[in-house]
Every structure is written in C-alpha cells, then in structure tokens.
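Exercise 3.2. Students should predict the tertiary structure of the chain below and write it as structure tokens, then compare their answer with the key that follows.

Predict this chain's 3D structure.
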Amino acid sequence: MIAQGQLRQYALPLENQAMLQERARIVPPIHHSFTYIPSDLNIPLEGAQKHFPSESVNLSLAD
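Answer key:
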C-alpha cells in the first residue's frame, strides 16, 4: 500500500501538468475560431448589401 501511495503522489503532478499542456494546446485554435468567425461573415454580408441595396434587411453584424 505504501508503493501505491507513492505512485499516486508521483502521478498526480504529472497528470496535472499533462492537463495544463493539453489545455494550452487546444485553447488558441478555439479562441481564434470564435474571433475570426464574425469578421469572416462580415465580408460576404457587405458584398450582399452592395448587390441588393434596395432590400430593407440590415445585414450588419455590428448591431
């Protein structure tokens, strides 16, 4: 039982470090995806407003 406790004490910091590394690896792409989606949509919407100026629909994402 002592060996099991020692193993647990050794493994827990490694598990935490692995979790932090994985989080650091996956967070930037997720953040960038959510950051760029509105700006990526805005360009086609601006083009649609130019082609259909008589439409009364407001296509702006900035509202």
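Discussion points: Residues 45 and 60 are 7 Å apart (CA to CA). The two ends are 63 Å apart (CA to CA).
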